[in-house]
Amino acid sequence: MKPQPSANPSILMEKLVSLCKRRGFIYQSSEIYGGWNGFWDYGPLGAELKRNLRDAWWKQVVHWREDVVGLDASIIMHPAIWKASGHVDTFNDPMHSCPACKKLTRADQILNIAQEQKWYSSLSQTLTKNGLDVPKLQKWLQREAQSQLPNLLAISGPEFSVEFAAKTIVTLAQQITPFDLLRLLACPPGENPNSVTPCPHCGAPLPPARPFNLMLRTHTGPIADDSNLTYLRPETAQAIFAQFKNVYDSSRVKVPFGIAQIGKAFRNEITPRNFTFRSREFEQMELEFFIRPDEATELLTGKLTHYSPELDLTEPQPDWAWDVWHHYWVRQRILFFQTLGLHEGQHLELYWQKPDELAHYAKATVDILFRFPFGTEELEGIAARGDFDLSQHQLHSGKSLEIFEEELKIKAASLPESDRQKFKDKVIQNWGNSGKSAEQAAAFCDKLFTGCYIPHVIEPSLGLDRLALAVLSAAYAEDTVPDAKGNPETRTVLRLHPSIAPIKCAVLPLLKNKPELVAEARRVFLLLRQHLVVEYDEAGAIGRRYRRQDEIGTPFCVTIDFDTIGENGREKKGTVTVRNRDTLKQERIPINQLVPYLLERIAIAPNQNS
Q1: Closest CA relative to residue 293, chosen from 455, 425, 405, 451
Q2: Which of 120, 426, 443, 496 is deepest in the core (most CB within 10 A)?
Q3: CA distance 356 to 495
Q4: pLDDT, mean over the chain
Q5: 570 CB burial (10 A radius; 0-12, 13-18, 19+)
């Protein structure tokens, strides 16, 4: 099982949400009208943070590679695309609809939602190592339960329910949770408590879950009827598959290669929760990396290398099987997170989905999990999707999405007929072991011998909003530093990697009522602004300004003081003090060296493939 969220939201999360609003990172959408659940707006600093994360991903995935190109597709596409991809028929979450309070709850999120409610912690006080504290439970039913779970069955019959719960708990071998106790309190007489699912919001018994399609519907054209029905895209990947052949034909790319896209996606989430983690509108950064089928690789190179832990993944090799490519991209994604200051073990862990957890089309999927304040949850998924997507779109559109490789055709033609037959027999046997027919395998080989095949794909899919929340969570810290008088004080600091910090440098005149200092500070500000995102700040004491910049994650503060303008002698004239956010150390730097000094410390380096 994946690690589950912690029982209660962390105080850290509350502090982080407060900071995000106070300092202009993230606001609730439509707040002046009471807000709109599942939608968020990014303020001035949040917009810069997201832009920096987008740029970092695009550089790493597209600009710094020779085998990936970009795409920017429309949000609304032909509805047949979503039929072909399976989203219309199968993109569902099981949902409970409470008949009492009318709230909707995802079936797989009930426990997590319950743990966030006020009743959960208060009800947990009635459970002891020795079982149930009946007097405490009776008081709870008479007090807290009345307001927190007004539709709980036990409120109308507390004596029977409490007696039933106490007897049942004694018979159980394992320690039960507050939610298990709630099941007992919501269970009608004579029924099995395991058959009862109480509403985590009001305590009423929930009816069986039913499928709920997550796609947001809309209409195109002047008349809103079924003929104009379409959808806001629930992911960016399908546009890449739909445009695969156009990109392949127009970009002079060769397999293996990738198509990357960053863009908005929409899902009609039943229970948006955990700040921006689960929203109805979000942004994805997805890569579809197309590789040869293993059979094509083996035919072309004469061998097929499968993954082993000692295999060198530094540089892709032409004989790699799909599982090596999958491990390669898992490694690449970990390296990307490291450049942002998120490290495996400290912040991240890998979860390899078990066979019964995989999507029907996936050969393997790895979830990169991040330790959020509310629990360890998925940040990015890397899936080996086979040829499912391109095959589906070829089938439904009637347009060929096969590619032709001249060298593959030449290689096949150079083999004796007996060797081609041995190759075909091997493929037929392998496909038969996976439930495919000999006719399908033979037809595939005949195509392959002509140099044609449908590529397979490895898909790293990352949520930009989740990434922003992850880096903010990892960066948030409180420490003790000396104030202007040397007394210890607590400061809040965002230790964001300099490359993604919204403001790279703040320029601070020591005093705002000294014209010479202000004039020089403005000159330095205008100089740096040509190269970096810089903020000019002259309001308040210098210590207070440092704290303000620390709280928004600014890695460097440049202070223009009396030495800068030569009032204390000519030795330090033309130099400024550069303060480091994390170490608090200060260096004197000549103004004419300031730009290269800062750029060197702010730049993000390409992945080191090791």
Answers
A1: 455
A2: 496
A3: 40
A4: 89
A5: exposed
Element (H, E) at 104: strand 104-106
In contact, 204 and 150? CB cutoff 8 Å? no
| Four-residue CA torsion sign, 286, 46, 215, 370 | positive
Strands 505-509 and 534-536: parallel
What are the phi and psi torsion angles at 230 (to 5°)? -150, -170
**For residues 607 and 328, what is the distance between their CA atoms, to the nearest angstrom?**
13
Please list the residues that pair with 376 across neighbouring strands. 371
Q: Which two tokens stand for residue 44?
A: 């001035």
| Cα(28)–Cα(14) distance, integer angstroms | 14
CA 565, CA 575: separation in Å to the nearest integer?
A: 8
Type of residue at 581 = R
**pLDDT tens, residue by residue, 423-465:** 999 999 988 887 788 999 999 999 999 999 999 999 999 999 9
pTM of the model: 0.84
Q: Evaluate whether 127 touches 134 at the Cβ level (below 8 Å).
A: no
End-to-end, the C-alpha distance of the chain in Å comes to 30
Report the pLDDT averaged over residues 294-316: 95
CA 500 to chain centre: 16
Domains in the chain: ranges and CATH:
11-91+217-402+454-466 (3.30.930.10), 92-211 (no CATH), 404-453 (no CATH), 503-602 (3.40.50.800)
Tokens of 245: 């052949």
Going 545 to 548 to 550 to 556, the CA torsion angle's sign is negative
Instruction: Report the alpha-carbon distance of residue 24 to residue 19 in Å, rounded.
Output: 8
Q: Is residue 538 very low, low, confident or very high in pLDDT (cuts 50, 70, 90)?
A: very high
Confidence band (pLDDT; 50, 70, 90) for 144? confident
Q: What is the pLDDT of residues 559-573, one digit of tens each?
A: 999 999 888 777 888
Q: Give the burial string for 232-243 (b: 16+ CB within 10 Å, else e).
A: bbbbbbbbbbbb
Rounded to an integer, what is the distance from CA 350 to the centroid of its chain? 14
User: What's the CA gap between 60 and 65, in Å, rounded?
Assistant: 7
- Alpha-carbon distance 605 to 49, whole Å? 18
Whole-angstrom Cα Rg for the chain: 30
Residues 6+ away with beta carbon under 8 Å from 157: none
Model confidence at 1, pLDDT cuts 50, 70, 90, reads very low
What's residue 610's pLDDT? 38
Q: Are 604 and 58 in contact (CB under 8 A)?
A: no
SS3 366: strand
On whether the CB atoms of residues 247 and 69 are closer than 8 A, the answer is yes
Distance CA 403, CA 453 (A): 6
**Three-state SS at 51:** helix
